[in-house]
Amino acid sequence: MIPALVVFLYLGVVLYIGIFAFRRAPGRQGAEDYFLAGRSLGPVVFLFSLFGAHMTAFTILGSSGHAFHNGIVTFGLMASSSGLVVPLALFLVGTRVWSLGKRHGFMTPVQMFRDRWETSHIGTVIFAVQAALLVPYIVIGVIGGGTALNAISGGLVPYWLGGAVVALVVMSYVFFGGMRGTAWVNTFQTILFLAFGAAAVTVIGAGLGGFRETMEALLASPATAPLLTRERVPPLFFFSYTFIPLSAIAFPHISIFCLTARRLQQFRRTVMLYPLCILAIWLPCVFLGVAANRVTDIPQIRDKIEARRVLATQGPGLSTSERDQLRTKMAADDVVLLLLGRYAPIWLAGLLGAGIMAAVMASDSQILALSTMFTEDVFAHYGGKARFGESVQVHTGRIFVVLLTIVAYTIALRFPHNIFELAVQYGFSGFAALSPLVVAAVYWKRSTKWGALASTVWVIASMAAVAVLQALVPAPAPGPPTVVWSVGGIDVLVRTANGTAVCGLMPVAPMTLVSVVLLVVVSWLTPRPSGVTLARYFEPPKR
Amino acid sequence: MSPLRRFLLVLLVVGFYLLHQDFWFWRAAKPLVFGFLPVGLFYHACYSVAAAAVMWLLVKYAWPSHLE
C-alpha cells in the first residue's frame, strides 16, 4: 500500500502545480491565455511539455506490454521511427503552423484549414473527425490510470476507482489551469518519467540477477529466443509502421502545442533533442518488457506466458470466446508494474510508480485540445463568442472538459482493451492518414477544400471499415491469418491475430497513400482558393 | 539555401529513412552488445542517436528563420 500512497502524494503535487500555475497567470480570463498559455512558453517548458503531450500510457505500459509478447521489434516499430519522423515533422510543418498561427491568430488547426481553404462547414466536418479520433486516445489515459493504480496498490485500488481518480485529477488541473497549468504539469511529469527509465532498469536488472544472464537464458530457450530478433514481424509490416509517427503532426493537441511557443527558436532544441528523449524512455521499457519473459517468481507473469503458450499451441482448436479469454489473460500492459512490485524496494516502487503515472496522465493535453477545438471551432465559429463574450467561451471550454472526462471514463469502464492495439488502430492510424491535410495546407498552393473533404471522408470511412471487419471476422489464433479477400493468389485483405493487414501492410499505409491521392486528384479538379488568401499564406509577411 | 545544399539535405534524410529498414539484422540476436543488448535493438538505439545528429544538421543548415 505504501507505493500507492506515494502515488497519491504525487497526484497531490500534480494538482498543486496545475492550479498554482493558474493562480500565477496574468490576464487569465482571456481565451488565448487559457487555451494557449498566451503563446508564451519558453524553450525548456516547450520541449518537455510537447514531448510529455506526445508520450502517453502507451509509452511505458503499452510499449513494455507489446515487447513482452513481440520482442525487441517494438522499439524499431514505434520508437526509432518516431525519432526521425516526429522531429522532422515539427521542423518542416510545426514551425510553419506556429508562424501562421502567430500571424493570423489561429488557435486550432481547423481555424487554419477554414481560412486557408475558404470554407466553413468542411472545417466542421474535419473537426468532427478529429474529435472522434481523439476520444479513444483520451480513453487510453483512463485505462492506463486504472491499470497502473490497481497494480501499484497490489489490487487494493480497483480498476474503476483508479481510473476515476486519475480522470478527476487530470480534469481538475485542466479545468483550473488551462494550457499554462497543463504545460507545467507536463514538464514536471516528463522529467519524472525520463528519470524513471534508468532507475527502473537498474533496480529490476539487479533483481533479475543481471541482464547478461537474463538475455543468455532467453536466447537459450526456443520459445523465447525469437523475442531477441524481429522474426515475428515481416519486414513489409515493419516498413508500414513508419507511417504511424506521421500522426504526430496531425494530432490536434500537438498542433495546438506548436502554437504555444513564444518564439520560433523554441523549436530548435525540441527538434534536436526529441530523438534522444524518445530513446531515453522507450529503450528501458522495451528492454524490460522482453526481460520479463525470464521471470519465474511472479505468478501473474507466469499466467500470461502460459496463456500465450496455450493460445499458440491449441489456439486453432479453441472457440472464439476461449481465444478471447486467453487474450485477456495475456494482456501485458501491467508487466513493468509487476516487475517493480516484485524487485524494487517499497519506497522506490512508489517513486517509480509515480513516474509511470506521469506518462499515463498525458491525456491532459488531449482533453484541453478537444475543449479548445470545441469552443473555437464550434462555439465561437457559429457565433457563441460574439453573442456571449470571451468569458462565457472559457466557461464553455471548462464545462466541455468535465463532460469529456465523464464520457472517456464511461467508455474506459465498458471497453477495457489492450493499450497498444487501441492506440495504434484508432488513434495513430487515423491521424497519420489525416497528416496530408496539414502538409498540403502549409506547403501546397493548389490544394482545395474539396480535396481536404475527400481525404477526410476517406479516413473516417476506412477507419469504420477496419472496425466493422474486425467485429465481423474474429481474430485467429497466432499463426496463419484468416484471408478475407484474395485476388490472383495474392492476399489483399487478411485478419491477423492482432488486427488487419492489407497486402501485407498495416492499414495505415494504404489509408495514408489513398488520402494523399484523393487530396491531390480532387484538388486538381476543383477551383483553388483566391489569390488574396494564397498570398497571405505563401508570400513573405510585410514588415 | 542553395539548391546543392537543399539536395544534399534531402538526400541525407531519405538515405537515413532507408537505413531504418535494417533487414540485415532481422533474424540475428547475437552479438549481444555489452553482453546483454541484442544487436537489432542496439542498432535502433544507435539509429535514434544518429537521428538527433541529422536533426542538428537540419537545424544548423536549413533553419527557416524567415518564419520568425
Summarize it:
The complex is a heterodimer of chains A (543) and B (68). Chain A is an all-alpha fold and 543 residues long.
Walk me through the topology:
The complex is a heterodimer of chains A (543) and B (68).
Chain A: H1 2-24, H2 31-36, H3 43-54, H4 57-70, H5 73-104, H6 109-116, H7 121-152, H8 159-208, H9 211-220, H10 235-240, H11 247-250, H12 252-258, H13 266-291, H14 299-314, H15 320-330, H16 335-343, H17 346-360, H18 363-380, H19 384-388, H20 390-414, H21 419-443, H22 449-472, E1 482-487, E2 490-495, E3 500-502, H23 508-525, H24 531-538
Antiparallel strand pairs in A: 1-2, 2-3
Chain B: H1 3-18, H2 39-62
Looking at this protein, list some descriptive labels.
heterodimer; A: 543 residues; mainly alpha; 3-stranded antiparallel beta sheet; 74% helix; globular; B: 68 residues
Can you put this structure into words, describing what you see?
The complex is a heterodimer of chains A (543) and B (68). Chain A is an all-alpha fold. Chain A is built from 24 helices and three strands. In chain A, helix 1 (2-24) crosses helix 8 and helix 8 (159-208) runs antiparallel to helix 18 (363-380). Chain B has helices at residues 3-18, 39-62. Chain B starts with a helix and ends in a 6-residue tail after the last helix. Chain A binds chain B through residues 72-73, 75-76, 79-81, 83-84, 87-88, 91, 95-96, 98-99, 210-212, 214-216, 219, 225, 228-231, 235, 238-239, 242, 263-265, 268, 271-276, 278-279, 283, 286-287, 540, and chain B through 13, 16-17, 20-23, 25-30, 32, 35-38, 40-41, 44-45, 47-49, 51-52, 54-56, 58-59, 63-68.
